[in-house]
Design brief:
With 317 residues, the protein is of the alpha/beta class. It folds into two domains: 218 residues, Spore Coat Polysaccharide Biosynthesis Protein SpsA, Chain A (Alpha-Beta Complex); 72 residues. The protein contains ten helices and eight strands. The protein has an eight-stranded mixed beta sheet with strand order 7-5-6-4-1-2-3-8, sandwiched between helices. The protein binds uridine-5'-diphosphate and magnesium ion (MG).
């Protein structure tokens, strides 16, 4: 097999309804735009423990097309682990990631690759006209994710959530050297990139099936981002501690003056004290929670489990 120029990586989790049309549109795009010598392509699917017919359909595609490989995970590890599973096999100089549900039109791939050819390290898709049917419940969290990511990584980007992205090979190699488990690929990539471009791309609703992300998975992702890319929560903790102490001292001084001026009404402060106590208890819980988040992650890293287990790589020849 010739060394491909472009590697397309697609994570698959129960997407049997989407794979046939995805493959048709993707292969058409690739065959028309990347068939010149020196600019060949390959596609690597990761089957992230699907329980439907996804794996079967994928292996059929791989059996007919030598440029397609399928990485089969032994169970479900999540979208980002699935992408990493495919990253370890890529051979191309440019690597494009894509969702399988046709929310990211495969026809946009040449645009992103062109950006990398121009000299950018990372080209991120910037979804235009987002029409998420589940509206606020889904777009609000992703707005939040964007804002926090911008803050913690220091890279201004309009759309961190779009997985239609192109990376120069060196960036992918750097990401593969990261041994941590909880990583959010777009942010991780940006931390290794010098020149980052954003390309407006189309955005459709999920073609079939339902989103694999519930609210809980999104909250988890946000925690991943916050703790793996900055010490911001820990620093906030200290700031909060100082603020609370200052408030406490101020309030103490106020009480002292109040008692000197009104020695007869000293019992009235009891309820205020209750309120203050609750604020303190709340702050302590918050602090413990955040500390626990870091400690939990240290625990995970120390165990040093493999991030995923590849069962088999399906590939023709
Ligand atoms: N995915 C995966 N493993 C998972 C969840 C999702 O490989 O545990 C894949 C899924 O098949 C799809 C992509 O990740 O190709 C994005 O998932 P989804 O469309 O459900 O996410 P959303 O668009 O709702 O953020
Ligand atoms: Mg989707």
């Amino acid at each position: 097999m010739v060394q491909p120029y472009l590697s397309v990586v697609i994570p698959i989790y129960n997407e049997e309804e989407n794979i046939p049309s995805l493959w048709e549109r993707l292969s058409t795009t690739l065959r028309t735009h990347f068939n010149t010598p020196g600019r060949d392509w390959e596609v690597i699917f990761t089957d992230d423990g699907s329980r439907d017919r996804s794996l079967e359909i994928l292996t059929e595609i791989a059996a007919a097309e030598p440029r397609v490989s399928v990485v089969e995970f032994n169970r479900n590890y999540g979208q980002h682990s699935a992408i990493f599973g495919a990253f370890s096999l890529v051979q191309g100089q440019v690597v494009v990631t894509l969702d399988a549900d046709l929310q990211n039109p495969p026809e946009e791939i040449p645009k992103l690759v062109a950006k990398i050819d121009e000299g950018f390290d990372v080209a991120g898709g910037w979804r235009q006209g987002r029409t998420d049917n589940d509206s606020l419940f889904r777009t609000l969290p992703s707005k939040l994710v964007n804002a926090v990511t911008r803050k913690t990584t220091g890279v201004r980007m309009n759309d961190y959530g779009c997985m239609l992205r192109a990376y120069r090979r060196e960036i992918v190699d750097a990401m593969l050297q990261c041994r941590e488990r909880s990583s959010f690929i777009p942010a991780l990539a940006n931390s290794f990139a010098k020149r980052i471009a954003e390309v407006p791309v189309g955005h459709a609703e999920r073609a079939a099936g339902e989103s694999k992300y519930g609210l809980w998975k999104l909250i988890n992702l946000q925690f991943d981002l916050l703790t793996s890319f900055s010490l911001l929560p820990l620093q906030m903790l200290s700031v909060l501690g100082v603020l609370i102490s200052v408030l406490g001292i101020g309030f103490g001084i106020y009480l002292m003056i109040y008692r000197i001026l009104h020695p007869e009404g000293s019992a009235e402060g009891v309820f205020t004290l209750f309120a203050i106590l609750f604020i303190f208890v709340g702050a302590q819980f918050l602090a413990f929670g955040l500390l626990g988040e870091y400690i939990g992650r240290i625990y995970q890293e120390v165990r040093d489990r493999p991030r995923f287990v590849v069962k088999k790589v399906h590939r023709k020849g």
